[in-house]
Amino acid sequence: MTIKKEYSIKNLHCAGCAAKLEGTLEGLEYVEEVSLNFLKKKLTLKTKRNDHRELLNDLNVVADRVEPGTKITEREEASPKREYTVKNLHCAGCASKVEGALEKSGYFNEVSLNFMKKKLSVRLAEGAPEGILEIINEIADRIEPGVEVVSEESGCCGGHDHSHDHSHDHDHDMGRKELIVLAIGIVVFIVGLLIGEEVKWLPLLMGAGYLIVGWDIIYRAFSNIKRGSFLDENFLMTIATFGAFAVGESTEAVGVMLFYKIGEYFQGRAVDSSRRSIENLMDIRPDYANVKTAEGVKRVDPSTVRVGDVIQVKAGEKLPLDGKIVKGRAALDTSALTGESIPRDVIEGDMVISGSLNKNGLLEVEVTKLFGDSTVSKILELVEEASSKKAKAEKFITKFARVYTPIVVGIAVLIAIVPSFIYGDFSTWLYRALIFLVISCPCALVVSIPLSFFSGIGVSSRRGILVKGGNYLEELNRVKTVVFDKTGTLTYGKFQVTEVRAEGISQEELLEVAAAAEKHSNHPIAQSIVEACGIDIPEKNIQDYKEIEGKGVAVFYRGEEILAGNEKLMKDYNIKYEKAENHGTVVYVAKNGKHLGAILIADKVKKDSAKAIEGLKKLGVECHMLTGDSRSVAEAVGGELGIENIHSELLPQEKADHLTRIKNETEGSVIFVGDGINDAPVLALSDIGVAMGGIGSDAAIEAADMVLMTDEPTKLVEAFDVAALTRKVVLQNIVLALGIKIGVMILGVGGHATMWEAIFADVGVALLAILNAVRIIKK
């Protein structure tokens, strides 16, 4: 039996190394499938081994051999999050130190200290002692005297932003020590440039500066050589700069190492900044819930709230859980969930979803779903899982990186040796070979391409389009046919009475009689009649309710026999009636054997369905409709929307057969868009299954590859736009990175490029590619 395992990756700082580790793990005989997400530091693999502890040990041996110091750890089950307010903390660097000390304490699985919001969030590790707040304060005061951590109930912050005295622009991976090292290196490099090459002790000064700046890279390079795994950026930079010293270019050696480290620093900042920007697009996770209790309102973690509890949501707060409004009215901002900019007005009795922002008013909401089953949890889980499903372009770059570096290193060796035998002047050709080594790191592609898809998924989520993987975003560019379900997809899925044709009585009387007959039915058509009637019919007036399968209902209302149903029901009771022509559903009504008239019911077409079909046609996409409805209804809807390919009166299995036939006749990929539980098999069968997330069933959403949160078909057209932009950026980055690298390589061999151009072709190009990928977020 195949088992899926997820692990966390620690101490992995290089995208190229991540690609190499992923490739090595793919080659293990006990690993069937592997995905290493460098951005999220997450490893997912499928294996038939069930010896979990031994498996983890073996994986760590492999990881340490490939990239020394890398650790693979179990992903802990998340314990409830605890929130605290931090006082007297005036420096972002100090906040980082406090956060690091708490992480190293071993008491927590997760620690996050937000300096701007003065907020500390932690998840306790198993076996954490009682009185954890006192322990937190002890650690914080030891690191930064005077800092005080208090529970949110006793703090004044309430989760809101607070002003701060000043902040230092210190950063994520590089602490204060690393920045000091860089500063020393810059000073040494500038002094070396000023004193000139004629000074005899210049090489000593440059050597000292070189060791200060690049010691960690040199150390890792030689550690890797001992393990027999050395074709990484550490080895390349070490050999290149050693070679520069060997040919008398000591200042250049220090400069290359220095600017390489600075470039890596800014590259890391760009990646983290873009990752935070994407995460901010989905800033919908609620921080707390205000639960009404006998003692008053209590602020708790949303995961501890039970179904049936009543929560209070004030203006400016997010709804932490799904529920039903029992008191109050407000305008809800659902833009973070659906991309809909217009607030939604809600009143008592309305259902509301978690992640919505209360713009005004005070609401009391009865919880209908646990936090783990809530809308916000499902959305965050879908987005989290999306990054593990890689597009073909991502997989190609990963494989490309594994062969690209060795090939370039091999060419560099040939450049250093072969021309030297032919033309002599070994030092010149060695220098040109070193340029090749500096250029050969593939990080520009390995980082920017996954980031491009990550950005595409993020911006889609902001628009209310959940894409479950970069592979589906890429696949959208190959779609040639979209197949739609009708009810709930192109139409609202809500039946409405469109016409009342009474014979011998008033329309109101006909509706009352029909509503009495349909009062006990849960069928949507029956409910539409009861709703149209608008009269509360007493239960005591209804007797002997009987549902006749496939035909209608029979009931006694005020002692008189009432029939409501289709033509078959009228024929069974030998009732003469006048056939009503309609593209929707017709309910015939009779009393005591006499026909009273007919009620016409139809499902309304969504206001943006026609626009969606038009948009898809402009993209060159062919549209089909599959439905279980009658031919006349299907053709009426299809004619209104401009869909020529209509297949009606289909059972679920027949839908699957038709989709298979359409796939066989289509050269590109095929999308199926549906909403109901009966659509789940067809969604799974299509190349890309798209579910309606607002009214769609859980089964359909689970089976789908994309979810449209607003139930608007036009969102599908927007998804095509995002996919096209993502592909454009990916291609741009490939051309940019390879074009500049190859160009500088050619110039280097011809003696027209130096190490400075080479370092730009490495870290400079990587930074440009990352910034280009981030453009998608602005879409």
TrEMBL record:
Keywords from the named record: ATP-binding, Cell membrane, Membrane, Metal-binding, Nucleotide-binding, Translocase, Transmembrane, Transmembrane helix
InterPro entries (alphabetical): ATPase_P-typ_cyto_dom_N, ATPase_P-typ_P_site, ATPase_P-typ_TM_dom_sf, ATPase_P-typ_transduc_dom_A_sf, ATPase_P-type_domA, Cation_Transport_ATPase_IB, HAD-like_sf, HAD_sf
Compartment(s) where it occurs, according to its Swiss-Prot or TrEMBL record: Cell membrane; Membrane
Topology relative to the membrane: Multi-pass membrane protein
A cellular component annotation (GO) from this entry: plasma membrane
Methyltransferase recorded as keyword: no
SUPFAM superfamilies in alphabetical order: Calcium ATPase, transduction domain A, Calcium ATPase, transmembrane domain M, HAD-like, HMA, heavy metal-associated domain
GO MF terms, alphabetically ordered: ATP binding; ATP hydrolysis activity; ATPase-coupled monoatomic cation transmembrane transporter activity; cadmium ion transmembrane transporter activity; metal ion binding
Highest taxon above the source species: Bacteria
Family affiliation: Belongs to the cation transport ATPase (P-type) (TC 3.A.3) family. Type IB subfamily.
Name of the protein: Cadmium transporter
Species for this entry: Propionigenium maris DSM 9537
